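Dear colleague,

Thank you for sharing your sequence with our group. We've completed the structure prediction you requested, and as agreed, I am returning the results in plain text so they can be pasted directly into your records. Please verify that the sequence below matches your submission; if there's any discrepancy, let me know and we will rerun it promptly.
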Amino acid sequence: MIAVAPRFLALAVALGGFSIPLASAADGPVDCAKCHTVQGGQWAASVHAAFACQECHGGEKSYSLGTEVLNKYVQAQPPRPSFDHGETFRGKAPRAKVPERCANCHSDVERMNPYGLRTDQFAAYWTSGHGKTLRDKGDDRVAVCSDCHGVHDILKSSDTTSRTHPFNVPGTCAKCHSDFSLMSGYELPVEIVSEYRESVHGRLLLEQHDPGAPTCATCHGNHSAMPPGFRSVGAVCGKCHEHASKNFETSVHSGREEFKGCVQCHGGGVERHNHAIERITKPTGVMLQRYAHLMTTQPHASKEEVTAATHPDPKQILSKALATCMDCHEDVKEDKSLQKLFGLLDDIAEVEREYLKTARRLDEVGRGVLLVDRARFAMEDAKTHLIELAPLQHTLDNTLVAGKVGEFRQICDRVNQELDELESGLRWRYRALVPIWAFAVLFAAALFVKYKRLRAAYVRIG
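Please find the predicted structure tokens below.
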């Protein structure tokens, strides 16, 4: 007699999953993978490999089933006869029941505690856009656990081939959110994943392979995935951009119903869907490289040309957001608020140019014989002040920004003054060498004359 795990026959009947020759089905225990080879292979490599198939599908552990009876189910043409797997067999869960099926274990504190896994994810799922649509509307087209994690091939998120690995999350979300036929039914845009891939976050994650870069789940949540409302966008962005968020809370726009938060300026403009996040502030190292290149090709560049070559992004990005600004600020030329904003950006651009000019001078002076360590330390302070200006500008307070600009300029002035003193001292040392060298030359000449006289007086030639 052949002992056959019951649910595999049922799944085989339903899915046509038998793939083994019957001659190999000798009497004895037959596990699920003997028939369902694909699913069995996936299961063996998954995080659930230590658990039996019955954990999810139910059914008896074994059946007394002879070869002839087994052949009846394996060789039968559709529609195949049904097989009694026992009262406990649950089979494949309908999509709408998948969350509950997974929650049988994943909401059990006692079972999950040894693995250090959270047990609130089932409850969190019902707070998500997916869960609410499933529960309230009975729409099972929404994402359920198996869509994101897999069915039999569930892997740890640390595995680079896992659907939930950070590098793969955008692709996992894109399976639904880039599907026009599916998204059109919910009146949702299909461009958001492509926008994300082009954003500063997407490039960090997918091109530079930075595992710390934000993924879809970072901003929207994973099991409790929801699009943040405009009032909560700042809180979401503030999880990473803490200083910018705190400064924005003090701005005139904070708390205004009509203002869309961070994405108003950083979201890519009116024709985008708030996922084309662009980086406005460039690292100082990048600006220094661009400035050095500019000075070799165009040493007498104007201020505007320096800004355009080293850091044009702030005004370019603001220009994209200007259309949304016009919802409230109707006249760009007459509105003093916008004039102040552009003035603020001009002040920061002037500071950046001053930093680049001073840093380049420091680098050139430091290549010579002068010791400029103290000036280098001071320039690190200037760099810190320049970096602090990026989040501080979110206050939209020209007075605060002007204060920080003043502190920055004091540091640059001290550095330039010290470099002036060092170069002046070097020039004086060079000048002091003139009489020394003159004396040395005269002394050498005198010695030569003396030598000639002595030679003439005491040395007999021939």
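Summary note from our side: The two ends are 131 Å apart (CA to CA).

Kind regards,
the structure core
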